[in-house]
Amino acid sequence: MKTAIGRRLADAAPAALRGELSHLRYVLDLALPSAGEQLLAMMVGLVDTFLVGHLGAPALAAVGLATQWVMMSNVFFSAVGTGGTALIARMIGACDPDSANRVLRQALLLAVLMGVITTVPGLLLAGPAVALMGAVSTSFLLASVTFVGNACLRGAGDTRTPLVIMAIVNVINIVVAWTLINGAFGLPRLGVAGSALGAMAARQAGGILVIAVLLRGRSQSKLALSLRGLHLDWGLVRRILRVGLPTGAEQLIFRFGMMSYARVVSALGTAAYAAHQVAVNAESLSYMPGFGFAVAATTLVGQGLGAKDKRRAERDGFVAFYVAAAIMSLMGVIFFASAGPIIGFFTSDPEVIALGVPPLRLIAIAQPFLASTMVLAGALRGAGETKAPMFVNGGSIWIVRVPLALLFTQVLGWGLTGAWIAMATDLGVRGALMFGLFRRGKWKDAEV
Q: Which residues are paired to 218 by β-bridges?
């Protein structure tokens, strides 16, 4: 008897292990393409900045202004995208693709509306000196479709298609902008206007690609867009916005908080602010896995709740967090051990390097908390619980980061290291609160 029982246990253990490994692969299949997509989305602005860098300060200022307007517009797009992601994940989990496609139609209609709303101010604010802003604004209509359409695909579990679309967007942006900025192949040399046209062509191509993909239908995501009888369904619109608007509000509150924090740091002087920017650029590398696993958690938790399996939803959210925390902690070890060479890669100024090393080491220690802040917030959004992340992320930056930064820099005189102690403390508070909120489990009964 013992031998038979032992054999059954031996057979069961590998089966359970194979199941866990298979599930981990599924989490990675969702997360890694999303991380790549986020990197490619950032690359559009970075490439524009790089290509016009040799054209002088006015050109760089125009790119900076256009980038700020794009980031502000993304706040509106993210409200719709988050609502669409959460609802579609629920409906795919419930094996109800028809309802998921109805949400898709309403989310894209809202995307078009948001695109129009953000285009008009961009055109009105764009004068001759900032032609780039005007050109980029004309692409907002289709850029909003790209943003929201990709979010809907991710909610259905398809993260590879958005990655491919963003790769094509980047290629178009690089080719068109480089050609027109420099007047290659016999074309006129347009300077900053060439960068504007490159960004516009790329963003418009992205929107057209998303529409084409959804019209054709994706067997992987079970999403298909029909243009027949398009009209706003106010019931679904209210559900999308009820979930999504807190995310938009969260980003607005957070963005203004970051602006205030940047002002505190800039008061420390040119070298300190330069070191701050370099450390931020280096630290931003850890955002990629954080974003990827946050998207995975959003999809997995939403689909788990849609399938009426709360235990699965909770397990999947924690799996995404633990894997992200492991990867980001490893990056933290690299940041801590190689802070000097990493800062030195971005600048050769000895003073800037000396000032930038302690902040990078501080944020290295905070990586697990950053993982919790990003991934478990994504998990809560997947459940439709978007108010809690809004209060935690929006509140902490104003209650913890900005006041502590003022205290440590202006009163105690700890300089840039003090400002980053405030940042690390903020991440610790937010990470702990987000972990507690997810573990508490009230999100399991959230309605979308």
A: 223
443 pLDDT above the threshold of 50: yes
Instruction: Give yes or no for a contact between 123 and 105, defined as CB atoms under 8 angstroms apart.
Output: no
Over residues 108-141, the pLDDT tens digits come to 999 999 888 877 766 666 554 455 555 566 677 8
Nearest to 133 by CA among 195, 50, 53: 195
Residue pair 314/441 in contact (Cβ under 8 Å)? The answer is: yes
Cα–Cα dist 44/61, whole Å? 16
Residue carrying structure tokens 């780039």: 132
**Looking at residue 228, what DSSP letter applies?**
T
| DSSP single-letter state for residue 130 | G
DSSP state of 412: S
3-state helix, strand, coil in the chain (%, to 5): 85, 0, 15
Average of per-residue pLDDT across 222-243: 90
The alpha helices in 156-233, defined as continuous H runs, are 160-182, 192-216
CA atoms within 13 A on the CB side of 25: 6
The chain-wide mean pLDDT, for the chain, equals 85
DSSP character at residue 307: T
DSSP 407: I
Domain boundaries, the chain: 29-232, 246-445
The torsion angles phi and psi of 14, rounded to 5 degrees, stand at -60, -35
Task: Determine the pLDDT at residue 380.
Answer: 96
State residue 15's pLDDT score.
54
User: Regarding predicted confidence, which is higher, 104 or 173?
Assistant: 104
pTM listed for this prediction: 0.85
- What percentage of the chain carries pLDDT values higher than 70? 84
Quick one: CA torsion of 307, 311, 314, 315, rounded to 10 degrees? -110
Helices (H) and strands (E) in the chain, counts: 18, 0
DSSP codes joined into one string, 284-324: GGGHHHHHHHHHHHHHHHHHHHHTT-HHHHHHHHHHHHHHH
Residue 364 phi, psi dihedral angles, 5° rounding: -60, -40
- Beta-carbon neighbour count of residue 197 at 10 Å? 22
